[in-house]
Amino acid sequence: MREKQIIRTTKETDINLTLNLDGSGTYNGTCGVGFFDHMLSAFCVHAGFDLDLKMKGDLEVDCHHSIEDLGIVLGQAFAEAVGDKGSICRYGSFYIPMDEALGFCSLDISGRPFLVFDAEFTNQSVGTLDCCMVKEFFRAFAFNGGITLHLKCLYGENDHHIIEALFKAVAHALKEAVKPNGGQILSSKGMLA
After folding, report:
1. Pathway it acts in (predicted)?
2. pLDDT for the residue 190
């Protein structure tokens, strides 16, 4: 089973996270930001991952530290759960329509982290989630997970729909990329990174 627990404590956040890449699509716990819990739940359902989260953050300041640190820890757990990356499909791409919004993700679990994020938001926040933190979360996740991650909202008007389309697109792309490929390293140079 590809599962990893990460515990990370700073002066700003206290996170205990367990990620199972071969789960049933279940999210248990809370990050303290309601809309982001909604996104994590959708992420798990669509990726088929299980995520257990116990977390406290300095939300009296704002949501920045909590969301960014969660991206760091989730990325670390993902990288360790995937392992040497030598026996997975590696690549994944997916489009997700969410009412008027269309989100796209293309990714490579290569060990070479990068983020291209092309989405604009109309409002400052959705619930208590600052919209600017969506990019910060995915940057932290990609760089700690060793993922080349391209995200784009092709069009959309409702920030809730745009964000949800992106999360679901990432989930489906990851679901494809982590599938076993029979043990062959998918690289002409014989290794990843």
Report:
1. Amino-acid biosynthesis; L-histidine biosynthesis; L-histidine from 5-phospho-alpha-D-ribose 1-diphosphate: step 6/9
2. 59
Task: State the residue range of the domain holding 13.
Answer: 3-177
What lies within 8 Å, CB to CB, of 188 at 6+ separation is none
Which has more confidence, 183 or 10? 10
Burial of residue 170, with CB atoms counted within 10 A of its CB: 0-12 exposed, 13-18 middle, 19 or more buried: buried
Per residue in 123-156, is it b (16+ CB within 10 Å) or e — as a string? eebbeebbbebbbbbbbbbbbbbbbbbbbbbeeb
pLDDT at 191 over 70: no
Range list of β-strands (E), the chain: 3-9, 13-20, 27-29, 50-57, 91-98, 101-108, 114-118, 125-126, 129-130, 148-155
Q: Does residue 23 belong to any structural domain of this protein?
A: yes
Q: Summarize the confidence of residues 152-174 as an average pLDDT.
A: 98
Q: Evaluate whether residue 185 is within a structural domain.
A: no
Task: Tell me whether residue 192 is in a domain.
Answer: no
